[in-house]
Amino acid sequence: MDDTSFLAERLDRAAAPLAVGDVLVLLALLTVGTVNHTGVDFLLDDPVYLLGVWAPFLIGWALFAPLVGAYSAGAVETAKSSVPLAIRSWVPAAVVGFVLREFAFRGNAAPTFMAITFVLGALALGGWRAIYFRVR
């Protein structure tokens, strides 16, 4: 019997650059969206505002990316394996983000926001990972 836990099989040290990149991409996406809709005045008025924007989606990502295998050994092999794992992780992570945003953090989860966030998040995560495997 193998003593390796389910989660241990889903986390590979070699995926650390992917994890860092994924988080940076999500932070950038959410920041650009926030600035696009609110301007930059929130930085002076409420400097921690972005934390409330980022937190729901980062919590969702932290919960689902490891479970889906976004940082597994398979994720570090090729873009062909890594990109779909990131996108499959994003879907449930975003759902958690929307629920948390609606009920526990500032903001709402309007249908248009959800649709755009689903699509742009998948494109951003998948795109960054595709680029990563081309340049590494």
UniProtKB/TrEMBL annotation:
Origin species: Halorubrum alkaliphilum
Family matches, as InterPro entries: DUF3054
Membrane is among the record's keywords: yes
The protein's name: DUF3054 domain-containing protein
Residue spans crossing the bilayer: 14-33, 53-73, 85-104, 110-132
Pfam families in alphabetical order: DUF3054 (PF11255)
Coiled coil ranges: none
Record's keyword terms, sorted: Membrane, Transmembrane, Transmembrane helix
